[in-house]
Amino acid sequence: MGEINLYQYPISPFTEKVRRVLTYKHLKWNPIDCHYEDKTNLLAVTKGAWTRVPVLEWDSEVVYNSADIIKWIDRKVPANRVIPDDSRLLIELIDNWADNTFFMPILFLTIPDLLDGVGDAKLKANREKLIGMTTAQMRERHASMKEQLAGHLRMIDDQLAGKDFFLGKSFTMADASLLPSAVFSRAQPGEFSMVKDFKNVSRWHERVRDIA
């Protein structure tokens, strides 16, 4: 079926969504790491149309934006569907909520330590400009962000009660959309010790993480 190239950042919640779906569909891909400043390869593959990751190139077709990539893959490879017809709208709503609501407190709680620890002043300045806030300003919001995160996790934990996956017995795009935030939240145990209190979330995270 041709070679799949995935233009990515190694640590990217939006790329991780696509990687989970590719893995679930048993598709192999070539990871092509991109630079946060040098957009040459992204501009080349998208013919100047897009400068963010992920971008997927397959059989001379190029698709960008994680949600659009997953929808396109699901049409191209219908085996192991991740967007059931009867849940399409709900899955789109979950994906939007995961990106724009669930991930925001996790971003504020993880990025300051990651940027301060990487030792790259240009990267730190670039990300602070993108977010519109310094790491110090983000840390000032940690208490309120922890409260927000706990509320989100409680809601997800309730939804997962008695279920293998977010919408029931099968992995869907909803799981792929929610997983990256869960991964980030477990990456720094000091900030996210609360996660262990949500047993359904913890079990679900391990189940989705181990899909191969």
Tags for this model:
flat, 8% strand, alpha+beta, 4-stranded mixed beta sheet, 4 strands, 212 residues, 57% helix
Specify Rg, calculated over alpha carbons. 17 Å
Shape: flat
Number of helices: 9
Order of helices and strands: EHEHEEHHHHHHH
Helix content: 55-70%
Across the major sheet, the strand order is: 2-1-3-4
* Main sheet properties: 4 strands, mixed
**Number of E strands:** 4
Beta content comes to 5-15%
Classify the secondary structure makeup into a structural class. alpha+beta
Instruction: Please state the average pLDDT score.
Output: 90
Point out poorly predicted stretches.
none
Note the gap between the termini.
20 Å
Description:
The protein is of the alpha+beta class and 212 residues long. Helices cover 57% and strands 8% of the residues. The chain is built from nine helices and four strands, in the order βαβαββααααααα. Strands 2-1-3-4 form a four-stranded mixed β-sheet. β3 (55-58) and β4 (61-64) form a beta hairpin. α1 packs across α8 and α7 packs across α9 (199-209). It starts with a strand and ends with a helix. The mean pLDDT is 90.
Question: What's this model, at a glance?
Answer:
The chain is of the alpha+beta class and 212 residues long. The chain has helices at 13-24, 40-45, 66-76, 88-118, 121-131, 135-139, 142-160, 173-187, 199-209, and strands spanning 4-8, 30-33, 55-58, 61-64.
